[in-house]
Amino acid sequence: MVFTEFFQQFPVKVLTVALLIILIVYFIRKFIKLFFDKTSFLDEKREETLMHFSNQVTRVVGLAFFFIYVLSHFFDFGKILTSSVVLASAWQ
User: Can you tell me the distance from the alpha carbon of 83 to that of 72, in angstroms, rounded to the nearest whole number?
Assistant: First the structure.
C-alpha cells in the first residue's frame, strides 16, 4: 500500500516520466546510429549530418513531450486543443 502511494505523488510521477523519456530517446538514438553504421547507401558526411539532425529532433520531441506532460497537470489541453482547432478553421 505504501509503495503505490509513493508513485501517486506528483514529483515521483514527473521523475518517472522524465526517466522514461530519457530512456526512450537514448534507445532511438542508438537505433539510428546502429542503422547508419550497418548501411552505406549515403556518403559519410551526409550520414553524420542526418545523425546529428535526428539527435536534435529526438531531443526536442522528448522535451516537448515532457513539458506537455507536466503542463497537463495544470491545464486542460482538451479545451485548448479544441479552441485552437476552431480558431484555425475560422481563420481559413
Answer: 16
C-alpha cell at 12: 515521483
pTM exceeds 0.90 for this model? no
Question: What's the average pLDDT block by block, 10 residues per block, for the chain (92 residues)?
Answer: 73 91 96 88 86 94 92 83 85 74
SS3 call for 92: coil
H/E element, 91? helix 77-91
Q: Which three cell numbers stand for residue 59?
A: 531531443
Please report where in the chains the cell 510521477 appears, as a residue: 13
Contacts 24+ apart (CB under 8 A), 34-39: none
Please, what is the end-to-end C-alpha distance for the chain in angstroms? 53
Joined grid coordinates for residue 70:
507536466
